[in-house]
Amino acid sequence: MESKNYQEDLSHIRSMMERSSRFISLSGLSGVFAGLSAIIGAIYVYFVFQREGIDYFDGERNVFGPSLVKELVVIGLVILAAALLSGYIFTASKSKKKGLKIWDATTKRLLITFAVPLVAGGFFCLALLYHHLFVFIAPATLIFYGLALVSAERYTLTDVKYLGYFEIVLGLISLFFLGWGLLFWMIGFGVLHVVYGLIMHKKYK
Fold first, then answer.
1. Is residue 14 part of a domain?
2. For 21, 110, 175, 202, which has the most beta carbons within 10 A of its beta carbon?
3. Which pLDDT value is given to residue 85?
4. What's the structural domain count of the chain?
5. Residue 82: inside a domain
6. Helix axis angle, 160-174 relative to 137-152, nearest 10°?
7. What is the pLDDT of residue 63?
8. Alpha helices in the chain, H assignment, sequence order
9. What span, in angstroms and rounded, lies between the C-alpha atoms of 205 and 192?
10. Which pLDDT score is estimated for 146?
């Protein structure tokens, strides 16, 4: 009987330590919604290309005008906003159900760790945009996002790093297939997020 109570106490202590050191309320559904947003956005961009007379799958290196680049940036920002909003809503809901605070010292450490490579990547992509090196933007976003996920893993679910590894590898591969950034971007931010989100939702629901 005492042995059973001892095991229960250890389990409780381990659970408390996990909650205090890691943000464990990350919702798999937020990943699914973010992925779907990226897929919808990529499909919309494809039709924007069609509207501009650009045949994305003809295998030719496409040249984008300033107005089209601005439109693509706006679309990207809208997708990012939708992903962040859905992430907050689903994660806040999960935290509430578990009786956990969504904003604490662990959350702050998570956001700082996640933001450093992400902000650095953002400035890097702005530099690419400034120098009209558009074909490198998709690979760069995938690589820096993957690095951010791997960095943030120490403060959240361990599984996040595996998504990060996939994003990094996909970004590196896309460097050898310049001009196909939209396709790699949709796979990385869309398909991988949906698959990851469904797995996490089933594993941690």
1. no
2. 110
3. 83
4. 1
5. yes
6. 160
7. 61
8. 2-21, 28-51, 66-98, 105-130, 137-152, 160-174, 181-185, 192-204
9. 19
10. 92
Query: How far is it, in rounded angstroms, from Cα 85 to Cα 5?
Result: 43
CA distances from 139 to 150, 167, 180, 183 (A): 17, 9, 10, 11
Domain that holds residue 52: 27-204
CA distances from 51 to 40, 45, 179 (A): 17, 10, 18
**Which residue carries 């996909």 as its tokens?**
170
Would you say the pTM of this structure is higher than 0.85?
A: no
Is 185 inside a domain boundary?
yes
- Residue 106 counted as domain residue: yes
Secondary structure class of 64 (helix, strand, coil): coil
Q: What is the pLDDT of residues 60-118, one digit of tens each?
A: 656 667 788 788 888 888 888 888 787 778 777 776 776 666 667 777 887 888 889 98
